[in-house]
Write a structure and sequence with these properties.
Elements (H helix, E strand, L loop, with lengths): L5 E7 L9 E7 L7 E11 L1 H7 L11 E2 L3 E9 L11 E4 L30 E5 L3 E3 L6 H4 L2 H13 L9 E5 L3 H12 L3 E6 L2 H9 L4 E4 L6 H8 L6 E6 L6 H7 E9 L14 H4 L3 E4 L5 H13 L6 E6 L4 H9 L6 E5 L2
Parallel strand pairs: 9-10, 9-12, 10-11, 12-13, 13-14, 15-16
Antiparallel strand pairs: 1-2, 1-4, 3-5, 3-7, 3-16, 5-6, 6-8
Helix pairs in contact: 3-4, 6-7
The structure holds NADP nicotinamide-adenine-dinucleotide phosphate.
NADP nicotinamide-adenine-dinucleotide phosphate binds next to helix 1, helix 3 and helix 4.
Length: 346
């Protein structure tokens, strides 16, 4: 395949015009450094972060303009002279925080996120340092592989980053967003029991099909934490809770957690001002742990698990064409999606 000198790309030009600040424009295909890998990107997926950046609602540092989206997948078309881990034809995914290789996040690596601090994945070609890519699981197509860098790695980090999930343990996942569905799939593959919450009866049926052992409607049962706890053996509570609701869910998570359990703080879909004091962690004898995606080492572990268990990410029925990325942002903003929302790249 001959590589052109220019390409189409979606650039976030600023944060004052909402999604109109997202511009589809021509740009150069990046030059390949000796440690770089040139990737023909075939798909990208969106995260709430991408929407928040475009709307000027993202609370962490960004450096615009940048090509949008942290999550991409594609095929290696050329490698620099010093590259050892990849060859032409390899299928790859991007690493969210390009500098986060292993261990804890550092001040330096937190500033290396694609689609905000570095050029993202919503373009035809990207050059990434070889340490900024991971081989895609062989059981996934490009669209499926594009869902992994942010939501999936975050769930993996929640379940394995501190106190690895064991078979037979109990996991609570909240709602049917990308992070929670990955956590459900990873937990079932690990032989754990899963209690899922949702606001919709239709989605409850899908959660059951995906393997959820129990589903609770959080609108019908606002005190779902106590209900979830009663479902666990001896009413002892859940070992892991994937906390994405923030203000609206924290009280319930604290009510459902087991002594010694972990509530992983990931998002605040329901607001960012929880009513509970952090001293509740002492009262409930549990760990409250914030995470920011995860390392390349964790992503590699996760990709092996996805391949070994033939896990397929839940992708929304609507996959958008490349020139309609802005429509994809609007569709997701209107919360019309189920699971991951993807864009195919020409
Ligand atoms: N810390 C990190 O590294 C990290 C990484 C990725 C994502 N995040 C954050 O994690 C959150 C989830 O991300 P996502 O990609 O999974 O989002 P998403 O796909 O947009 O999730 C949407 C779903 O969340 C559920 N939901 C909404 N409000 C809720 C509430 N008050 N209580 C319980 N569930 C609620 C709904 O499920 P139902 O329709 O079934 O009710 C909704 O369909 C976001 O805040 C995101 O910014 C953080």
């Amino acid at each position: 395949m001959s590589v052109p000198s220019t390409q189409k790309q979606w650039v976030i030009t600023g944060t004052d015009k909402g999604f109109d600040g997202l511009v589809f424009k021509e740009g150069p295909v990046p030059k390949l450094g000796e440690n770089d890998v040139l990737v023909k990107l075939h798909a990208a997926s969106l995260n709430y972060r991408d929407l928040a950046i475009a709307k000027g609602m993202y609370p962490f540092p960004i450096d615009l303009p940048k090509v949008a989206s942290s999550d991409g997948a594609g095929e290696v078309v050329a490698v620099g002279s010093r590259v050892t881990q990849f060859k032409k034809g390899d299928k790859v995914c991007t690493l969210f925080n390009q500098g986060h290789q292993y261990g804890e996040l550092t001040i330096e690596s937190v500033g290396t996120a694609l689609g905000g601090m570095r050029e993202g994945a919503l373009r035809s070609y990207g050059a990434f340092p070889e340490t900024g890519l991971v081989k895609a699981p062989s059981n996934l197509n490009h669209v499926e592989a594009s869902t992994l860098p942010c939501a999936a790695v975050t769930s993996w980090n929640a379940l394995y980053g501190l106190k690895p999930l064991k078979p037979g343990e109990w996991v609570i996942v909240q709602g049917t967003g990308g992070v929670s569905l990955f956590a459900l799939q990873f937990a079932k593959a690990a032989g754990a029991k899963v209690i899922a919450t949702t606001s919709s009866a239709d989605k409850a049926a899908t959660l059951k099909k995906l393997g959820a052992d129990h589903v609770i409607n959080y609108r019908d049962d606002p005190n779902w934490g106590a209900t979830a706890r009663k479902l666990t053996p001896d009413g002892a509570g859940a070992d892991h809770i994937i906390e994405v609701g923030g203000e609206h869910t924290m009280t319930q998570s604290l009510s459902a957690v087991k002594y010694g359990g972990i509530i992983t703080l990931i998002g605040f879909l329901g607001g960012a001002k929880p009513k509970d004091s952090i001293l509740e962690a002492l009262n409930k004898i549990c760990t409250l742990r914030g995470v920011f995606v995860g390392s390349r080492e964790q992503m590699e572990d996760m990709c092996r698990a996805i391949e070994a268990n033939d896990i397929h990410p839940v992708v929304d029925k609507k996959v958008f064409p490349f020139d309609q990325a802005k429509e994809a942002y609007e569709y997701m903003w209107a919360q019309k999606h189920f699971g991951k929302l993807c864009i195919k790249i020409d």
